[in-house]
Specification:
alpha+beta, 332 residues, 10 strands, 45% helix, three-stranded antiparallel sheet, five-stranded mixed sheet, 6 helices, binds 2-acetamido-2-deoxy-beta-D-glucopyranose, 22% strand
Length: 332
Amino acid sequence: MALAPLPLFPLLLACLGTSVMSCLQCDRTIRYMHEDFLGRVKGITVQDQMDLKGIIEHAYATYQDTSRQLRGVIDPTTLYQARTEYQSEFRRHWQEHRTDRIQWDMIKIVEKGRRILRKHLERFVAEGLCPNKCGLLFQSVMNCSTCQYLLFTCLSATPTRHCGVYQLQGEEGGQVVLDCFLSWHSLTVGQADYHYFWKPEARNFSAEDGFEAVVVTEDSKIVLNQLSVGEQGVYRCLLLDKHGTELSRMHFILTVTPLPTSTTWPVPALPPLPTLDFRPTRLHRDTLIIILALLTVLSISASLAIIVCFSCSKMAKWQKKERTRQKQKEEI
Ligand SMILES: *[C@@H]1O[C@H](CO)[C@@H](O)[C@H](O)[C@H]1NC(C)=O
Ligand SMILES: *[C@@H]1O[C@H](CO)[C@@H](O)[C@H](O)[C@H]1NC(C)=O
């Protein structure tokens, strides 16, 4: 590791000066940790001190390079994980691995820091950056070169921000829940609302026109109660940000089966739902629980009533017997 020429040093200083919170190479906590170490380390020469400083500054440059090889951005969670892992490794290192050459020890631990950063960045790029498989997401991340936050544009390859079509079935008089929430929606920066539209009686959504606005809501789901056959059709859910930019689009094709006119009880059939987490299943379970609870309460009350009646009649019989006995006594 070359210690003498450090051309990146002025650039780094500029970067450090402006950042509040940043990538590992200019993270305040990490800088304080290094400075604190240099201030506390005993029994070293001025030259040693300068060497250590140079090693740390060079490490900052390598951290920046490492970030740049991996998209050059990081999110706060990943940064936090990398920072805490490096901090604990740093502390452990100086307790366990002291050799005669403090420079060599320092090189080893800052290099370890680079590997830690790389490991976390690789995972972030694979899983955390642009988690949206569809639609458009502006993800808030930090630029590891400037240490400033920016909105990273994550635009999926699917056309027109399309996030799926779901067939829904309801029963006349029943309930159906439309929910177009996708986990990456929670990463959306700033206000965004779900806009629901409806195209009555339509079976497809090939044509853009003919959609009526239903509701604008912060909540991703809407509940259609007391379904009527006339509510069939295509429902469209758009997630729009505060500038009106479309972030995701989902369609639901709703079919409502009319109630059979015969007098037989309709068997409550669960509508086959798409893979999303829809409420009807839960509602159904809740209803079952309520019915079970009611039945339990009813049977307990019935048992109590029987017991009470039984005791009453026993009591009456006993009282009658007692009276007869008393009468007999008086006669004697
Ligand atoms: C980060 O900042 C550098 C320097 O301004 C710039 O060249 C680079 O494109 C930025 N990275 C991203 C992902 O915006
Ligand atoms: C969509 O439905 C309309 C009638 O609602 C029909 O005329 C059209 O052919 C359908 N298109 C497709 C692609 O099925």
